[in-house]
């Protein structure tokens, strides 16, 4: 039950620390190197390195003390034990300052963050917990390991945590996001495998070094071999959009963050933090070098896309900011709020140039004309400034590609087309049976697509005003009636509805998303539904096509916290939809999925997929692919 001290240069033993009466489970130096703390089966001891004498015996745990850790300043010691608690002790007095409870298994490992404001712990309950050292409150629990978490460590910057477990894996975690970034485990021939998502496998070699029998991995070296690290939003995704060149996807979430994704690999390039409430609008400048995020915290942040630095914080709105738009030249930004106002901002200085008033109710949408000479705003007061269209709420507005027309969608169940020069109403499209909440022009400007709360999408001929097709396939959610005995009353609950519509870059197909947790792909010429992406774990909040016209990429933002990119492949009368990447590990239905061209699929996963309805034989089971390039689905997707 002794602790031996060795000289590192000569490897000679220079002393022995005697005093424990049980097995020693943990030993750690203080930050200045003058003290040693040790934990055992019966107590925690503190030793003077110079004299090798025990200074203090700390007791309080009711079982084995598995781990001890000094705070960065050396004034506190954290200990974790068999009694499922973490205790924070004052080095000066030996008194217990906090007892952290919450783990349901022994606490096997603990470490302070570099700043000392947090502690991370790993437990036999297979979870990792993050604690506030000031209050002793657990503010996050990370799950993913399937056995005891035996080791835990912060990165030097404090932005990541690595955990080792008896499940033979090492996991990397973003300490501000819940899921694991990546995990590493031993496999045949000394290789290490990284499983970022269930459908992706990447191989890379470890460093040719071993320490105490454990392999060591060089993460930088792994990344050069296409190691993809992804974080996911911790709440529902409200907005998604592509950068002007189609190389990047941005997502805004209810978790108050915006994330920038590599459109090809799905790797999260940056997580932009700073807002204190939900992100309701995200938009790139036309040059793609700037990015704006508008939030319910009544601020807009302008970000440098390359560096992730926030250039300006635009303040002045007295209501929740609902939409924002860059001018075509990128020198101005327009924003609107639920306090009936619009504001124009100088992008270079962040100064507010103008405050536009006149709407009588919240302003829901704002758009610049193509030449930047006009600004269009749609309000719940029933007006499109400076165009007037009745008394019902305006839900959406859109300029035609030529800039000579404006389309508006309204609560009065109509779509109206306006002449931007004269303000005259050219057409009123009628036929929808409920609120029309979305409208968009086709790439050529000869058609308008509208989405309705009744779950339908309609295509309209701009020249004649006739309805070309009615896409009827989404299942609108029904209202429910609830009897409350305590109030002796009946409540009718109307669930939120939405119907999003977007043309592909070449205008041949239309994608629509709805509260029925599906995205449908429609043929513009025939009006037929060509594919259904189904079984999302929540409603679809936003969809967007990549602006590139050579390949049809579609990105979806969902209530299930996911951002997913899909490739839509037009193949004659058929339409294949391929999942390129997903930000989450949430499962999708695999009924009718084809695994014919999947590479690197292990036998176990092949059997599981077939058990759930997938068909076909995988291509070359022994080959490991570094992307999803050959996976495809027909009609319904994984």
UniProtKB/TrEMBL annotation:
Keyword match Repeat: yes
PROSITE patterns: WD_REPEATS_1 (PS00678), WD_REPEATS_2 (PS50082), WD_REPEATS_REGION (PS50294)
InterPro entries in UniProt: WD40/YVTN_repeat-like_dom_sf (IPR015943), WD40_PAC1 (IPR020472), WD40_repeat_CS (IPR019775), WD40_repeat_dom_sf (IPR036322), WD40_rpt (IPR001680), WD_LIS1/nudF_dynein_reg (IPR050349)
Keyword Repeat appears in the UniProt entry: yes
Keywords, alphabetical: Repeat, WD repeat
Pfam family for this entry, one: WD40
WD repeats: 17-46, 58-99, 100-141, 142-183, 233-271, 272-308, 314-355, 356-385, 387-428, 429-470, 501-532, 533-568
Entries under SMART domains matching the protein: WD40
UniProt xrefs under CDD domains: WD40
The name this protein goes by in its record: WD40 repeat-like protein
